Amino acid sequence: MWTNQMGRTTAGGLRLVRSWTGCVCEQMIGGSEPEVDQMKAGAARTQSDRMIRSVLICWVLFIASSGGKPTERKTKVHQAEPLSQLQHDDDKNFDYDHEAFLGQVDAKTFDQLSPDESKRRLSIIVDKIDSNKDYFVSEEELKLWIKNVQNRHMFENVEHQWNEFDLNKDGLISWEEYRNVTYGSYLDGPLTETEYNYTHMMARDERRFKVADRNGDMSADRQEFMAFLHPENHDYMKDVVVQETMEDIDKNGDGFIDLKEYIGDMFTADNGAEEPEWVATERQQFSEFRDKNKDGKMDREETLDWILPADYDHAIAEAKHLLYESDTNKDGKLTKEEILTKFDLFVGSQVTNYGEALLRHDEF
Hints:
Layout: E1 8-9, E2 14-18, E3 24-28, H1 33-44, H2 49-65, H3 95-102, H4 104-111, H5 115-129, H6 139-165, E4 173-174, H7 175-188, H8 199-212, E5 219-220, H9 222-229, H10 238-249, E6 257-258, H11 259-266, H12 277-290, E7 297-298, H13 300-307, H14 314-326, H15 336-341, H16 343-346
């Protein structure tokens, strides 16, 4: 299951996570079971059948994807998504490269193909990558292709949710439509317990919506709605990403993130459990790299550089890697023959990969 980085925490310890289903899920990160039961009972009395079904679906999906150990790293930070969740280790396999080059779904599709069929389909892809039709694939063309693959899931996520929010079918999603679908139950009958008051959550959403809404008409087209759902992938949304991150992590409200808050976002010791090794590494990272001016805390600029570093781009790094590994004559560009010779670096086949059988795409 894919879940975007839109988790926020309410005063009472409820973290709302917007998943690909388009609903707001409730994740308990603090508080007792009676409190949760009380909240659910109050919400159930006012929710419409559709909202009830949506929340239940979200809850089931969340439970299925959770259950991490206390020593695992957890964070509420908005960060640009990597090209693949797999480890990038070419000494073991090229699975990371396959997902970066094709996307997760198409990578699995290629895993079922014979080497000859993989090469045939890869040849078609190479023709698409070669945008200027000079019979070479440059690093820039590779980068643009990988970025398009990286962005594909965002387009799909927008399309998946669009009809749920575009209630009047005018091709736009207004703030009023989004608010009514997402917070309808709360607006119908606000819960009296302050710890479960969604007013702050709704205000944050409205603030983000206004930033994403570039023309200021309080309605989002598909590009603006994508920026709202995935702010970490849009440059003009950087300020709101930093603001939300600092609001979530800056527990003492001084406008900075100190070491305790930085570690506390990722790890909380339960019952005096010993810290895992990665926590010590993160402490070192904070001191040596995050806190650039060595004042013991991160300001807004340092936080921005942490969550959205300007000096690193996943797509550029992968394009350089693929070019370096495949450019046999070292002329700085790739021919189709060079790519097909190293086809197993770009795509999978039944020779090296086995997985779930998927339908072939019509474009091939």
